[in-house]
Amino acid sequence: MTFAESIRTCFRKYADFNGRATRSEFWWWVLFVIVVGIVLGSINERLAQLFSLAMILPNIAVTARRLHDIDRSGWWQLIGLIPFIGWIIVVYWCAQPGKETTRFG
């Protein structure tokens, strides 16, 4: 999946927690959010905060779909709330290759 396709897909599935997201879709989305956040932060801090607020739901949704691709429930992303270690675990899982068949479709 290309960068543009990934961004389009994530915006189209803004709050869709069903299905699966490939590694490329997930990581292109993460790159987009980070770069836009940095650019907006350099222009205006309030703009960057509004962007971050608007991206909370699609970030949670794409992470849930990414976890579905490795046959884990989207609820596992809550482990990221554990300081430092939880975040590392979620990043590790999101970097794993997807499975051919999962219970999530």
Automatic annotation (TrEMBL):
Membrane-spanning residues: 26-43, 74-95
Pfam family, one: DUF805
One of the record's GO cellular component terms: plasma membrane
Keywords of this entry: Membrane, Transmembrane, Transmembrane helix
InterPro entries attached to this UniProt entry: DUF805
Signal peptide stretch: none
Statement: the UniProt record of this protein carries the keyword Membrane: yes
Keyword Transmembrane included in the entry's annotation: yes
Protein name listed in UniProt: DUF805 domain-containing protein
Protein species of origin: Oxalicibacterium solurbis
